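Example complex used in Figure S2.
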Amino acid sequence: MTTDRTLDPAGLERLLEITGGDLEFLEELVDTFLADAVSQLDALDAAATAGDVAGLVRPAHSLKSNSDNVGATALGDLARQLEADGRTGVVPDATARTAAIRAEFGAVHDALLARRAQR
Amino acid sequence: MSGGRVLVVDDTDFNRRLLVRLLTSIGHQAVEAADGRQALERLRDPDAEPIDVVLLDIVMPVMDGYETLAQLKADEALRELPVIVISGVDELESVVRCIQMGAADYLPKSIDPEILRARVEASLAQKRLRDGERELLATIERQRSQLSRFLSPQVAELVSSADGEALLAGHRREITAMFCDLRNFTSFSEVAEPEEVLGFLRSYHGVMGPLIVEHEGTLEHFAGDGFMTFFNDPILQPDHAARAVHLAVAMRHHFAALSADWRRRGYTLELGVGIATGYATLGRIGFEGRYDYGGVGNVIIMASRLSGEAGPGEILMAQRTYAAGDGAIDAEPAGERTLKGYSRPLPTYRVPAPAQPADTGIITRVGA
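Predicted assembly (487 residues):
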């Protein structure tokens, strides 16, 4: 189920608009988002497994800003919350949180590819 | 405005790609760095083309935005480079901290092309203005250092000072003028080889010049064996009379060793000094294309006449100079003299001759 919170169409529309309507470049950006996210998720998992709370902050921060830019509102919010908690130094449920982020990313990924297929 | 070269420092490919694209589309050239260390390497690379503006992300691996900013501001060569911090809307605290550290501006992460354009262009304009200022300052400094080789340091300083123009335009002030020239120089230059004459003048100027600078006299001109120096202008020197006399004594002292050297070669050269104190009009004298900083007034004529009147090794001064010294000048009456162009004889004073003809002690300085 794709809701607007998973992928708000306004996000990509805005990117398309500011890049002068270049669809090809938009697809490149989407691919970059997906590739960045994979490494950010891996970094989050590694930090959570190792119990490295401070190590959660940077990947969560990057994932948050990228998600906001493509319109992945829910993913951005999850990352934002994890970044903020990571900064406090205490995240007891890190593994569960990163798993939830990975699940939400799966939905965003599917939504992005579904959107591309519709074109 | 023509485009600049912008360094985009961000660890996420997504942001770099987007920013590079936007910058390129508004006519700038974009260069990428994935973290602070890469950025500093690029900025310090002497072979790379210079960067005009830096867009700096804050949260980055290896070296974050704060550390990068601190290093930039600590680097003399990079301190003036405008840095625009890229920040999320929920990170205003970081923005404040960066601006306190010297960042020029900030850019929200949710990038708006118009805001990006405006901020980059504002920073670029600022950078160009600073570059222009820096170039101008370098030019002024270069001119000043060249000028100070041709002019007295005081005059060179005056030309580049704020009230210089008013002083150059002409002003009246009490000064002490000192003329000095050599007895027997004309006959020396007739019989000696020209190379010898020039060699002598070089060593003579080499000894006298630094003494004038040391005593902070304003050298008005050098002409062969003679020169005129004055005190209390353009820099005010309440002890101008004493300074002039002290300079004359130092000259006589150092000249003794120089003349001893030439005496061994068969030439007798002696220094004569005349000093007078009084009002003169000082400023720019000459014509467009060739001005000197000089003075006009009876005091200058009197100093010149006294120098002509002085015997070998004699330092002769006008009564007013002696009086202005207010006890700081060691002199004795030298009788009334009738100077050329003056209707009445004038009382004069002289600095007593040194106890021994060639003062010992500081002579090693001569010819060094």
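Chain A touches chain B at residues 15, 18-20, 25, 28-29, 32-33, 35-36, 57-58, 61-62, 64-66, 68-69, 80 (CB under 8 Å). The helical segments of chain A are 9-18, 23-50, 54-70, 73-88, 94-118.
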